[in-house]
Design goal:
2 copies of one chain form a homodimer.
Chain A lengths: L1 H7 L2 E2 L5 E5 L13 H16 L2 E9 L8 E11 L3 E9 L5 E10 L8 E2 L5 E2 L10 H9 L18 E4 L3 E3 L7 E8 L7 H8 L2 H9 L3 E12 L7 E12 L2 E10 L4 E13 L11
Antiparallel strand pairs in A: 1-2, 2-4, 3-6, 3-12, 4-5, 5-6, 8-10, 9-11, 11-13, 12-15, 13-14, 14-15
């Protein structure tokens, strides 16, 4: 947990349950504004701190974006303090009290001898060291849509500063079809992933929806949801994106998050308002 | 929408965004207390009413249960009023202001010519009229766990009064394995399903987690989440349950909701605290 606090710059702000963090560049999108993955990661870290339990699930709703270097105030509350399970609410606001994101979730104590099992199947993919540093999920979407452009992911902007992507060869998939995208990801500093970092990384379902539709499109995330499974120390995480559907320019989908040894660390889901990119106006087509 | 209001007994309570409903027996669990599916259905109906838009996604967190015949006050707010998309919050409380459930979600206007597609695959199952009225998902879990008991679902208690279940023969499944349970469901009055009713019906992921573990267990739902797809008028809905994982007595999973003609109406997901039943103390073993 302390590695999460350091990664997110999350610091206590006086009264219990109150924290703050700053939208530093590594917590931002490519345009410097607050990255959705940061909001859910902060919500998970704050809920674990306030309840002294491990995160079980979290949904974060994006209400408004925050500019670069903005200080965000975080308020984490235990709504229902059970002996084993705590239902929590986390709210992120700016200095004027304007809500940036709103989260609901739970934390709890897992029983060592409790019910356990995994009922989903991982795709068969190449290991991270045999996978391609090809530009991440965005490049995969471009190729899928037939766009012949070399678009290197800028390593020095936004969350790409701290997360490295590699694209595996997929030799078999339990449920193949369009909208399936697999991507290895890790913290560039090599620290093992935590539930908060899994949520930080998983924020890319809209790309799989664009992949499914065979177009180049981005998504304005409406929310991120994550449900957390068994802990299995892993540096790399396989983000196994599975678009569900698109309708009327809204898209929904899921991501299964697998450890290097094939354990299901978490499953995520997300909805987004989709926006098709005007390729004539793409940066690589501008003179 | 008016059929939802009637089904849920949702009535305006003076000021805009304020509603109320009573925990009537058909909105309750078998023990007469507020059923989780009711809370998310009410949240969807109230968010559509307050925003005058169609529901896109909704997460409902269960904070405390409400007893039979309790009057619940519902407050629906638009947190971010976009031209196309509205981010909404819905809270259900009792007369003392004690929160029963808290919901986050969005509503929006779908574009007729917007991105569209379905990237998940339905199982092949028998039609509702060739499927068995065998007692619903609970009976399926018992059989799966090797329990030789005839446990008819009581037709006159709780949500069973208004929802009929039939168990199809599954001839092929796109992603087979333990934890897969398929069930046809419809309103007993034959009214076509709406997003609110889909959410009402989908609240049974814990049964698929028990099925995956091969045990008889129930779940205390922590939340219900639903992401809504294309409208396709359908009386019956195929609830295609897919458990994801269990760890330390917590379980997570999803449900795909298909129309009679095979359209993906919505995908749902849920987390629960699992409780193994003591079969020696089961009603059918008591003298």
């Amino acid at each position: 947990m302390s590695s999460d606090r350091e990664f997110l710059g999350l610091t206590p702000a006086g009264t219990p349950g109150h924290y703050r963090f700053t939208v530093e560049n590594h917590l931002a999108r490519l345009d410097g504004r607050l990255y959705g993955g940061t909001a859910i990661a902060v919500s998970i870290a704050a809920s674990e701190l306030v309840s002294d339990r491990a995160a079980l699930w979290m949904t974060t709703q994006f209400v408004s974006t925050a500019p670069a270097e903005e200080e965000i105030r975080v308020h984490a509350e235990v709504l229902a303090p059970g002996r084993r399970t705590n239902q929590v609410r986390v709210t992120g606001s700016d200095a004027d009290g304007q809500v940036m994101f709103a989260s609901l979730g739970a934390t709890g104590h897992r029983r060592d001898d409790g019910l356990a099992g995994t009922f989903e199947h991982p795709p068969e993919v190449s290991t991270p060291d045999r996978s391609e540093p090809r530009g991440g999920p965005f490049a995969a979407m471009l190729r899928n849509a037939g766009v012949e452009a070399e678009v290197p992911m800028p390593r020095d902007v936004g969350f790409n500063r701290v997360v490295e992507f590699r694209e595996p060869a997929v030799t078999s998939h339990p449920d193949p079809g369009p909208g399936r995208v697999c991507m290895w990801a890790r913290r560039r500093d090599g620290a093992p992933v935590t539930p908060a970092i899994l949520a930080f990384i998983a924020d890319m379902v809209p790309l799989s929806v664009a992949h499914g539709c065979g177009v180049v499109a981005g998504g304005i995330s409406l929310d991120n949801t994550i449900r957390i499974g068994s802990a299995d120390p892993s540096e790399w995480v396989l983000v196994d994106l599975r678009a569900h559907l698109a309708t009327g320019d809204y898209g929904h989908g899921a991501a299964h998050l697998w450890s290097e040894s094939g354990a299901l660390l978490a499953t995520a889901s997300q909805s987004a308002s989709m926006i098709r990119f005007d390729l004539d106006d793409a940066p690589w087509n501008r003179s």
